[in-house]
Specification:
By secondary structure, this protein is mainly β. It has one helix and 20 strands. Helices cover 3% and strands 53% of the residues. It starts with a helix and ends in an 8-residue tail after the last strand. This is Glycosyl hydrolases family 32 N-terminal domain-containing protein. It comes from Jatrophihabitans endophyticus.
Length: 303
């Protein structure tokens, strides 16, 4: 894959193509939290829509399809009301071996800093909202789970989940680490350890959230969101971490420039190249969802 520093320049480019506009103008209106998949000749994108806190927060996860990776048509939508959730965050979309689909949904408990993760699946994307639901990471009084990255590697399922500790009270619940988990079915998960944690006195001292993971020869590469303080919650920047294994990453490059929100980088790898998707801040304070394309060296310059 391209040099990590170049990849950060790519996602930090303010001229990158916007593919999904926010649901309104101004602070608190977000389109983002993407989870991208290339499958059977099409790009699939799951993402979160959000309004300001006083207007309902994260109200929907949308799944959309595109032939070119830029122009998307909505296929399915799940809502916060459907999950009895105060807010939804970043989803994770995974195609199943039998042709079906599964969407992992991050759900917020009303009047609480607690989050849990639920999976909903269906034989067809169009009927996903009516699919079978399973709680996969319930959390508890001491732990909130959200913003998972999920992939299948042969018979094994892999997950990188963002864990927020709740034992320090609401003022400290924004802290985050990335935990590695495995599963035989993608529904029952076993923790394997911390994959990436904060580095004291640096730009990611308050939290590290892995947002995408790829194999690179004998190693691993992850994009992750970081913040230095509680004041940077919602304004994360992106870095790159390299790993000797899926459960052992260390910071390699980053962050993206200060003052620009760049987060939730997700990759969709097609035979011709890689589509990058991420959430970025606009000048009016809203966040939109953007993309950039990196062709393979021997491939054309478009997907």
């Amino acid at each position: 894959m391209t040099d990590p520093s170049h990849l950060l320049e790519l996602v930090a480019d303010p001229a990158a193509t916007t593919v999904i506009e926010p649901p309104g103008d101004g602070v608190g209106f977000w389109a983002g939290g993407p989870s991208a998949v290339w499958q059977d000749g099409s790009f699939y994108l799951a993402y979160r829509l959000r309004r300001p806190v006083t207007e309902g927060r994260g109200y929907a996860n949308v799944v959309a399809r595109s032939a070119d990776g830029e122009t998307f048509e909505t296929v399915a939508t799940v809502t916060s009301e459907q999950f009895d959730s105060a807010s939804l965050e970043r989803p994770a979309l995974v195609p199943l071996a039998d042709g079906g689909w599964r969407l992992y949904v991050s759900c917020s408990t009303e009047n609480s800093k607690h989050w849990w993760v639920e999976a909903i699946e269906s034989d067809e994307l169009a009927t996903l909202a009516d699919g079978k639901r399973t709680v996969v990471l319930p959390g508890d009084d001491a732990t909130a789970w959200k913003d998972v990255v999920v992939r299948r590697s042969g018979p094994e399922w892999q997950m990188w989940a963002c864990r927020h500790p709740l034992d320090g009270g609401d003022d400290h619940a924004d802290r985050m680490t990335s935990v590695y988990l495995t599963s035989d079915d993608g529904l029952q998960w076993q923790e394997r350890g911390t994959a990436l944690g904060p580095t004291p006195d640096t730009w990611d001292a308050r939290g590290t959230r892995i947002t995408s993971v790829v194999r690179t020869g004998d190693g691993w590469l992850a994009f992750y969101d970081g913040r230095a303080s509680a004041a940077e919650n919602w304004f994360e920047r992106t870095g790159v971490a390299l790993g000797t294994g899926p459960d052992a990453f260390a910071t390699s490059a980053g962050p993206t420039p200060h003052g620009r929100t760049v987060r939730y980088v997700s990759l969709a790898e097609s035979p011709l190249g890689t589509r990058f998707y991420w959430e970025a801040s606009r000048s009016d304070g809203a966040n939109d969802l953007r993309t950039a394309y990196v062709p393979r060296p021997e491939s054309p310059s478009q997907s």
